[in-house]
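Give me structure tokens for this 640-residue protein.
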Amino acid sequence: MTNRFTDHEITDKELADLESLAKTCRADILKMTTLAASGHPGGSMSSIDMLLLLYKFANINPDNCRSLDRDRIIVSHGHTSPSVYSALGRNGFFDIDEAISQFRLAGSIFEGHIERSVPGVEWSTGNLGQGLSAGCGMAISGRLTGNDPHIYVLMGDGEQQKGQISEARRFAVKHKLNNITAFVDYNKLQISGNIEDIMPQNIKDEYTADGWMVFEVDGHNHKQLFDTIKKSKEVDRPVMILAKTIMGKGVSFMENIAGYHGKPLSEEQLEDALAELGIENNLEHYKKMRKEFRFNAKQHKIPEYETAVNTGQPKDYTIETKMDNRSAFGNALTDIVQHNSLKKSNTPVAVFDCDLAGSVKTDKIKKEYSEVFFESGIQEHHTATCSGAASVNGVVSFFADFGVFGIDETYNQQRLNDINGTNLKVVTTHLGMDVGEDGKTHQCIDYIGTLRNLFGFKIIIPADPNQTDKAVRYAARNYGNFLIGVGRSKTPVISGENNKPLFGEDYNFEYGKMDILRNGEYPMFTHGAMVPYALEVQKILKEKNVSLKVINVSCPVAVDSKELNSLIDTDVIFTYEDHNKHTGIGSLIADKLLDGGEKCPRIVKFGADKYAYSGKPAEVFKLMGIDPESVAEKILKNIK
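Here you go.
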């Protein structure tokens, strides 16, 4: 199917069919929201004309809606889900009767906000303001895969108050994403009233100032919409169509009433509205269907694309190597990008940066493989969403950032990535108190505690450059969301009892497996930047005839209860981390021991019990009471 906005003139019959179908869809919207006794009918009725036109003429249909060469239609104001379901259902993507009868019904895929499990839905929407960023990501992926789809993004007008949209606008212009056409449903109303009263803004001039071409149209005039979209194809920059619409369009007593933003009609009001639209009131039919609904978990499966990433051969660092883990990450990623640039059949790898390439060690990619490197500037919210959306459209995405930015600042965006089942590799450097001199505002001491809330994120905190290298390659070739977290400081290559690299050429990274670094009696569980400190504690205690078993927990949320219990044969164990000690590996170890049903030993947790200070890491650890000498002393007191 070709894109008929460029090779077609809309006919009078097509216009008449659209006008008739729009009435049917408005009736669908009202029926499903009344039936559910909740939902957002007003904005759905103002958006429906744009949606119907796009699904009729863009290159997307029930047969190609999972292929990479389709156009993308992203609905950012996902509360207008009734209009999306109606437009998709009336275009054959699924049974419209099921959408109407199951709207907002527990267990149905037709949720209150649109989800990717619904055929034809490109992006599950959460908080407003993320759709344009998602559209940018899909445009990037299309460029790298060579499919070059057109990207249509529909947004609300009140939504334009969101700062992330301004980030996305600038990114689209900088990277010449000229295949994006955005629409703003300009009905001038939001939940609390007129948008000019709630938060005044000049939507048109804001887009123009950022370099977009802006067209203004009647958002209910299908001919104007069609001709403007067609004209936009000739513009060599991103386009925004400011579509002037009417909240509640089509039902006289609903029009221009802000209250109908999120208030459905009563059954009596529905009767009057359907009569005005000239549509049969068959609500009883849908009530019966609703009662007959049966939950099917398989319907909620989110589509995935197969990936083929050549991860190359691991680098082996000797014990003489003096390197930080972030440099090992940069080396591994550069190797992966190089291998996948050599062969077109491989899955493209996209690298996203927020003005930190030199610090997060993606600068070599920026210099040598600029075609896959996307600089976003200091725009973390946009970049998190953009990289996530790119990763579910045929590429593997790496988003490298500092911990407080890539995790804490963008938590909501990462949560939405998780809900969307993205294939994103988030690599955060400068984690924990290891960032030292930058102080408490930049010491990310909650990286595990924060992301353990997300059900789909795998977390890897590698111990040294060798384990970092292998972890990066593992994440690149395995589908799903990963956090790989490292510190800032140089980290010694960890050696075994034989004084050879423990994670060297004979080591194979297995997600979830713990590593015994030193054998002994009393277990100490640690990870990441704290591994060298834990080994120092082991040496101190050894001189005092106390045997410490040092265990590296590189995958803290995937600890196996049986393996854990096999490592413990004492009535007290220790955890050691530069993380909030109440939400890191200490609490995770405790949870796993209780889950396993075994006798739970006493756990002594060493970690941050408050925000730390600015200074060299070793000095900060001493002030926090978690330097090796202090920890060794406290262990001695706990084993007497």
